[in-house]
Structures are given as structure tokens and as C-alpha cells.
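User: Structure please.
Assistant: Input sequence and predicted structure:
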Amino acid sequence: MKRIIKYILIIIIFIGTFFIRDNSFTNVGIAYNEDARKTDRIPVFTFHRLVPDDVKESKYKNNQWVGSVDVFAQMMEYLYKNGYHTISSEELYRWYKGEIELDTKTVMITFDDGFYEDYYLAYPILKKYNFHAISFVVGNRIKDITRPYDKNKTAYIGWDVITKVRKEYPKFEFQSHTYNMHYYTSNGKHRIKSMDIQDLENDFIKNEKFGFNVMAYPYGDYNSKIQRVLESQDYLLAFRFSPAAYALRTDNQYALGRIKINGEATVNTMIKWLDY
């Protein structure tokens, strides 16, 4: 009888061991699937000025820097309906540092130059989908009051809008496109290339009142000097622009890649970058 009980115990232990091993393999499979959904790159989409279709057609038909707000709306709708989520600059920074993981349906939306269409046209679309976005503004263009919208006029976001939106909808960020580096010098070079360390530091000092901690380089151009200043000013990140590329953890912290959405782009243009 004791021998029978002994055999039964052996069989029970064997079966139990089998199921434990089987569970362990199942868990390994689940972990592998979870890892497969993590991303090693982030598409950071960059838009410039957005205008209504009729204005695009009549005034900016072949202008690569001016896009259709209607196409932008279609792009945001596509992202929303297909389960994509947008992130803030802080989330991108934490991902870059390895503090968090993000999945392959993660994107970042950015705008350059601080045109007032960012607020009047793009902002309502972004709020509709509860999306994050960043408007990179040029400090010396920030007036106290934003002029009323006129589709036939060019203007920039003012301090009144920045303070209002920061309180009303913090997911829409305002960050630095420098204070006054967004132009070419007389010799045809980007301003940033001709500035010494002191000039660069002075530009940052003038921007301090706006509370920026992320930068997009004008024209995507940069050098080691401005990267040193960014580090000394405790900026989290900075973005280059060309060549167009995903933001990677292997990038320099102050030279993350972005993807330009050309003024002639369609929804399919964006989808190609999502398919990686």
C-alpha cells in the first residue's frame, strides 16, 4: 500500500512539474510578444504653416513650406482611428533615457515657426482627438497680443495665446525655435553657424522668460557650440531636421531626428513613415 502511495506521489509531482514548465514557456511567449510591440524609434512629424485649401490652391500651390489644414485634419483622423497615440516632450525625453517604453503606435506632432494658424486652425483639431503637439516659436516674433485670424494674412502666435493654452490645454506645448537665429546672414549661411558661444548664450537669455526647455534648430542646422549651450541651460532635447529621420535612442540628445511633412504631402505620405 505504501508503495502504491509512493508511486501516486511521484506521478503527481511529475504532472505538477510538467504544468509548471508549460506555464513558464507560456509566460516567456507573452513577454516576447510584449517586447515585440515596443519601439526603437519615434516618428516626429514636422509641419510648418497650415492654411485652408482655397488659400493653398490660390497662393501657395507649389510651396513646400505651406500645407493644407484639411489634409492635416485627415492625417490626425487617420492616427486617431488607427489607434495611434501622441506624446509630450517629457515623455519623449523619458523614453530616450530608457525610463519608459513606448509602442510602435507612438508619434509626436510638431510645428515650426509659430504661425498663428497653429492656434486658430490646428489646435481645435488636436483638442478634438485629445492629442499632444509642440509649436516651436521664434522668441522675437512673440508679441503681447495675437492678431485676429485672417486667412489672407501672415502672423505669429502671441504671448496671450501661449499663456492661455498652457492653462487651458497643457498637451499643446510651446517650445523654442531660438530667440533670433531664424534667418540667413549676408553670406547666405544660417545665422547659427556664425555665432560664438557668447552670442548663443545671449539668445538663450532672451528666451528665458518663455520657460522653454526643448529646442528645434532653425532650418535643422546646428553645431557643437549650440549643443554645449543647450546642455549648460539644462534643455532636455533638441531636434535637427535634415536628413529626415526617426528619433532614436542612439541619437545625440541635442540632435534628434524629425520628419518633414511637405506642403504637398498627403495622408499616404505620413502612412509610409508609420510603416516600419
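The CA atoms of residues 86 and 131 lie 6 Å apart.
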